[in-house]
Amino acid sequence: MSALRGVTLTFTFNDSGEAVSFLSMLKKELGDARLYGEIKGKKLKVFIPEGERTDDIVRRVKTLYREIHEKTLTVRPRKLGVSTILSMANLEVAIPVPALADVLNMVGKKAVLRGEYLETNASLKEAVEFAEKLSRAYKSLLHEPLTATARRLAAVASVVLGTEPDKAVDLLVSKGILKQVEGNVSLSEEYTKSLSRLRSLLEERRDDVRETSI
User: Fold this and answer.
1) In angstroms, rounded to a whole number, what is the distance separating the alpha carbons of residues 191 and 142?
2) Residue 132's pLDDT is what?
3) What confidence tier does 110 reach under pLDDT thresholds 50, 70, 90?
């Protein structure tokens, strides 16, 4: 007997009670939609079997979670479940979650990775959107001759500078943040120092934009 095909979404809550409440709400709001929930501690896994309405049901489940989540949080730091972010995002390739924290910090959102949670003042929607942008950048860089850390930095640079991934690589090489040796591209310094230099480059760009607009 073949396994049932479909989409699995994973959501993280503050406690199991919230997970139970959300699952009950889903069944009420979505009516006759086919979905199955499994609760383990603070996590809820929602399985939507493959069918004509699968995409629509997945979209509605994500929307309901986002609406409930945003209503319960204000400007205080949020604890976003990493598995929730990855389930909500439409990722083209897998991303290293620390790189997402790098991006959020670069764009002015405080973000610290603590185990299974990303503690940040970014909204869930923002975290998901940046995860998707980061995934697209990573996909473009997969076949480039980059070391793992150089690829991570280049993908982050592409997102925060708003430029194409290959152009981000060229820029970082021209600035000496990345170096090319025998056809391979790697960091010129260790990652945290390279990230700091990227931050300085981003701030220079912002200053140039302000001067131009005056």
Assistant:
1) 19
2) 96
3) confident
Position 69, amino acid:
H
Among the listed residues 95, 149, 141, the one whose alpha carbon sits nearest the alpha carbon of residue 118:
95
pLDDT for 209: 45
Residue 14's closest CA among 81, 101, 74?
81
Task: Provide the pLDDT confidence category of residue 46 given band limits of 50, 70 and 90.
Answer: very high
Q: 160 is written with which tokens?
A: 């925060």
CA 15 to chain centre: 23
Instruction: Decide if 59 contacts 90 (C-beta within 8 A).
Output: no
Residues 6+ apart with CB under 8 A from 122: 78, 80, 104, 109, 111, 130
Q: What is the dihedral of CA 104, 158, 195, 146, to 10 degrees?
A: 130
Strand 78-81's sheet: what is its strand order?
A: 78-81, 117-120, 111-114
Contact by Cβ (8 Å): 143, 151 = no
pLDDT value, residue 71: 62
Decide: helix, strand or coil at residue 173.
helix
Whole-prediction pTM: 0.72
Over residues 96-120, mean pLDDT:
93
